[in-house]
Amino acid sequence: MKKKSDNLIVIIGNGFDLAHKLETGFSHFAEYYKNIIINNLKSLTEKETNNLSDIFFHFYNSPTYYQNELSYNKEEKTELFILVNLIKNGDEKEIEVIINKNIDWILSFILKNKFLGKLYSNSYSNWFDIEQAYYFELCEILKSSYNHKEKLKELNINFEEIKKVFKNYLSNEIYSIRDNKIHYSIGKHFSKRKNITIVNFNYTDTISHYLNFTHRITNIHIHNKLDEDIIFGYGDDTDENYKKMKDSKEKEYLRNFKTFNYLVSTNNRKVLNELSVKDNYDVLVIGHSLDTTDKTILKKILDTNKCDYIELLKRSDLENEEEKKEAHFELHANLARIFDSESDLREKLIPFEWSVNFPIMTQIDENIIIKRNKELYLKKRTRAFTTVNN
């Protein structure tokens, strides 16, 4: 047993925004942008329909989303031509059926941004996980035997375009709000802590609605805020392929690695400074997948002797305990990829049975917190005073 630390590190990920019903995920962005493109398809003139090479999709004043070169075969070109005409001329029900069945396939052909087209065509294991897909593409280029520089240049241009459009989507379409139930839950977790450091992986300012507690709270946007140049890319510099990329001496492999972007922003240094001045701390994870896209900084926080305990929260939006266990297991698996020693992980991780629900906390959860605090932490001793009678 250890004494309960006065210090709490709170890791916040996109699940925190999703708990507020904010559509901040990559998949939300994909659906939003898809609708923009569908509206463009519906508004094409007959002349434009007859000449597919003239199709132009305009989004947030970005002139880079032109139709791809018609390098596909005659049969595919004919099928695409028929689909576009059906979308243009069909009735609403017919259009809806066609779009639902074929739009991702259409997008994979007509977008100049080939990486974006592949994301829509579901070419990767996790649909529209932009950062993971980007690293997959880097690894594929690394394995190829020719034309590395041209492929890397094209991929990085494509990635930069998507980054800008995604940032604009969050800036113009997402409005953060305060939720009283979440405020109550956060208050319970912050209770009896003197120093709280929030390592915020989100670009949004949702957490700002909950910084009115009396504790010392430091909120660090590790990937910057939307009014800054956001850090967007991949963050596992322990992977073997990363080492090969670095050894290749081709700088374009490294352009969107978070390791290098952290050297530009001061926020990574702020996190490291917060960790360095603390003797020990507990960690609370809210809505972060703990995936390898952020492995480098997560390892600094979690896989260290200064970290006493790691608390993961149950998702109160899931219907039953089995689903919650499965969601926890996924986080455990991701944590195992961060830690060098699974023994250290087992020692730090608070068991599932002692985990509480988020964002909706019940009386049962409050009882769990009281019970686990008795079993996890040593009681702080109070100095005994004696009275001497003269």
Description of the structure:
The chain is α/β, with parallel strands linked by helices and 390 residues long. Helix content is 49%, strand content 10%. It is built from 16 helices and 9 strands. It has helices at 14-19, 26-42, 46-50, 74-89, 92-110, 114-120, 130-143, 148-173, 180-190, 240-247, 258-261, 267-276, 295-302, 321-338, 342-348, 363-376, and strands at 2-3, 7-12, 195-200, 216-221, 281-286, 307-312, 314-315, 357-358, 377-378. Strand 5, helix 13 and strand 6 (307-312) form a beta-alpha-beta unit. The longest helix is centred in the middle third of the chain and has 26 residues, at 148-173. The protein is globular, with a radius of gyration of 25 Å.
Task: Please supply descriptive tags for the structure shown above.
single chain, 390 residues, alpha/beta, 5-stranded parallel β-sheet, two-stranded parallel sheet, 16 helices
Summarize the structure.
This protein has 390 residues and is of the alpha/beta class. It has helices at 14-19, 26-42, 46-50, 74-89, 92-110, 114-120, 130-143, 148-173, 180-190, 240-247, 258-261, 267-276, 295-302, 321-338, 342-348, 363-376, and strands spanning 2-3, 7-12, 195-200, 216-221, 281-286, 307-312, 314-315, 357-358, 377-378. Strand 5, helix 13 and strand 6 (307-312) form a beta-alpha-beta unit.
